[in-house]
Specification:
The chain is mainly alpha-helical and 147 residues long. It has a domain of 102 residues. 48% of the residues lie in helices and 10% in strands. It has five helices and two strands. A two-stranded antiparallel sheet has the order 1-2. The longest helix has 23 residues. The two termini are 29 Å apart.
Length: 147
């Protein structure tokens, strides 16, 4: 129990979770306007919305200093198997790509391009290959309904 109020830390977690989920929904709403054809600069803007959705959504379910993480019982919901799978995908995406760097999930890879006919010809030029897709592009409506 917080000494200044009658609310417990679990209560405060629920209050904050409401704000986090609203922020995730706003980020998703902005992301849903992504056009089919897009410039690299616009892609970065929509990547921000996309990734912020995952960060905000996952915040109530992750460890926090001073606040407990939430579980399904605390929220009073029973997700379907599809909702559980979507929840896990969002968490994995947040943990492996957005909040941390998982070498197996990195968006950028560097390859060497050989100039010449033989493998040992020089010079070799680095080529940066980026994953420009969006993990949740085809899940927009499912996430919106879940939120």
């Amino acid at each position: 129990m917080n000494k200044k109020t009658q609310f417990t830390n679990a209560d405060w977690r629920l209050f904050q979770a409401l704000d986090d989920i609203q922020e995730a929904l706003s980020a998703l709403t902005f992301f849903m306007d992504v056009p089919e054809r897009i410039s690299e600069i616009e892609r970065r803007r929509f990547r921000c919305y996309h990734d912020m959705m995952a960060v905000s959504y996952w915040r109530p379910f992750s460890q926090s200093k001073g606040l407990p993480s939430l579980g399904w019982a605390a929220l009073g919901i029973k997700p379907s198997p599809d909702e559980r799978a979507l929840h896990k995908r969002i968490g994995d995406y947040r943990n492996k790509l957005v909040a941390h760097t998982d070498m197996a999930k990195m968006r950028i890879k560097v390859k060497a391009m050989v100039v010449g006919d033989r493998e040992d010809d020089f010079p070799r030029y680095p080529i940066v290959v980026k994953d420009v897709g969006f993990e949740f592009l085809n899940d927009q409506r499912n996430i919106e309904n879940w939120l």
